[in-house]
């Protein structure tokens, strides 16, 4: 299996409830390493650009409001098959459909406030990592 890097965000609903350690423990227990990490408060412009692929969706405006409603933790996870593994650990977008033991099943408040983001493909992982981190910020 190839070692990959993927981009992860701990969303404002989770930072508000002081869940960053509990969420990151799930990644580490599954063998993913946090190789870059920063706590930030996203600007509206950053959120709109980050989620630009969803700009025609009815939930886009609310999503950007939510993502700028508090601090987030942006991070890079590294490990075997990291992109798919991260998505598996997070669970389905809607916590009502997420498998038992996943982050979203255990922590999400709603389909919007679903505690974590994870890249969905190698191309998007590279784009999303580069949006928040310079190469020198990532220490594997
Ligand atoms: P994922 O984060 O699982 O990749 P998407 O890329 O489809 O999901 O959506 C991005 C984010 O937009 C979701 O994580 C969630 O916060 C929000 N979202 C998705 N679908 C809805 C919806 N139907 N209503 C409200 N918010 C949504
Ligand atoms: Mg997505």
Give me the secondary-structure topology.
Elements: E1 3-10, H1 12-16, H2 20-29, E2 33-40, H3 44-50, H4 60-67, E3 72-80, H5 82-90, H6 103-107, E4 116-118, H7 122-132
Antiparallel strand pairs: 1-3, 1-4, 2-3
Which small molecules are bound? adenosine-5'-diphosphate, magnesium ion
Portion in helices? 25-40%
Structural category: alpha+beta
Would you report the number of β strands?
4
Straight-line N-to-C gap: 17 Å
Number of helices: 7
Q: How do the helices and strands follow one another from N- to C-terminus? A: EHHEHHEHHEH
Strand order of the largest sheet: 2-3-1-4
Q: Report the major sheet.
A: 4 strands, antiparallel
Describe the structure.
This protein has helices spanning 12-16, 20-29, 44-50, 60-67, 82-90, 103-107, 122-132, and strands at 3-10, 33-40, 72-80, 116-118. With 140 residues, the chain is α+β, with helices and mostly antiparallel strands. The longest helix has 11 residues, at 122-132. The mean pLDDT is 98.
Could you provide a short overview of the structure?
The chain is α+β, with helices and mostly antiparallel strands.
